[in-house]
């Protein structure tokens, strides 16, 4: 068994698609209409056959509440790995990304946390 798709709740799929592709440099894999929403998945440009990230609408009240509460408590919705955290931190700062935690060494990891503009905090990590 392996993880093929993981999801993240987003407030607006179009806004999320723009941020995750143009700012974070993910690649759109699927964009399929499903009723009033879409099945939008993204992949890493380095692993286009790897795990897909689903931009899941937070339309359900439980999803909205979950998303608001973990954001308010400063809990990242997910974590992405990067090869050089300081370089990625600088690149994202230059694109206007707002960080809630600057690069911080935690044991064997260095992490940073930013606001994805779609209702989530995202953690990036370098081993």
TrEMBL record:
It comes from the Bacteria. InterPro entries: Glyas_Bleomycin-R_OHBP_Dase, Glyas_Fos-R_dOase_dom, VOC_core. It holds the Pfam family Glyoxalase. The lineage of its organism: Bacteria, Bacillati, Bacillota, Bacilli, Bacillales. It comes from Cohnella nanjingensis. This is VOC family protein. Residues 1-127 form the VOC domain. PROSITE patterns: VOC (PS51819).
């Amino acid at each position: 068994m392996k993880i093929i798709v993981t999801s993240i709740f987003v407030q607006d799929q179009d806004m999320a698609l723009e941020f995750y592709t143009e700012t974070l440099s993910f690649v759109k894999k699927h964009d399929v209409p499903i009723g009033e929403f879409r099945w939008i998945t993204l992949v890493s440009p380095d692993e286009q056959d790897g795990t897909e990230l689903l931009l899941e609408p937070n339309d359900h009240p439980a999803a909205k509440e979950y998303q608001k509460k973990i954001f308010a408590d400063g809990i990242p919705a997910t974590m992405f790995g990067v090869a050089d955290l300081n370089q990625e931190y600088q690149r994202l700062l230059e694109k206007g990304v707002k960080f809630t935690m600057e690069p911080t060494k935690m044991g064997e990891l260095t992490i940073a946390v930013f606001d994805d503009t779609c209702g989530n905090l995202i953690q990036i990590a370098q081993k």
